[in-house]
Amino acid sequence: MVESVVGCKWSLHVLAQIRAGNLRPGTLERSAPGLTHKVLSERLAKFLRFGIIERHEIASRPAHVEYRLTPFGEQFARIIDEVDRLQRMLSDQKDGREADAS
Predict the structure, then answer these.
(1) CATH number of the domain that 13 lies in?
(2) What total of structural domains would you count in the chain?
(3) Could you read off the pLDDT tens digit of each residue along the chain, which spans 102 residues?
(4) Which residues are within 8 A (CB) of 47 and not within 5 positions of it... i.e. 6 or more apart?
(5) Any idea what the Cα angle at residue 58 is, between residues 41 and 12, rounded to 5°?
(6) Hey, which residues does 66 pair with through a beta bridge?
């Protein structure tokens, strides 16, 4: 499941946007140049299937949809944050070694 989610370059971006309060599909789609409607729909469907997000239909005129992290999604996002922190640490170490080699 983790590999399936993290394996797409857009997954982390979409999760970060939802965590930041960008809950509507149109806002999510406009949040990154190159993120297509098709890819966003695939990511959202996968997140729904794994229980990372939940879909809320807002009864208004016009009706719209919002996505929010589930409690599991909040925990999952914290794990992803830790993976990102480790990646940045490794990148910083690599940059330090390259600077020392110069």
Answers:
(1) 1.10.10.10
(2) 1
(3) 877 777 788 988 899 999 999 999 999 999 999 999 999 999 999 999 999 999 999 988 888 999 999 999 999 999 888 888 888 899 888 887 777 766
(4) 5, 11, 14, 15, 53, 67, 73
(5) 35
(6) 56
Convert 17-45 to b/e letters by CB count within 10 Å (16 or more is b): bbeeebbebeebbebeeebeeebbeebbe
- Domain range for residue 92? 2-101
Q: How far apart are CA 83 and CA 11, in angstroms?
A: 14
* pTM of this structure: 0.79
- Distance (Å, whole) CA 21 – CA 12: 14
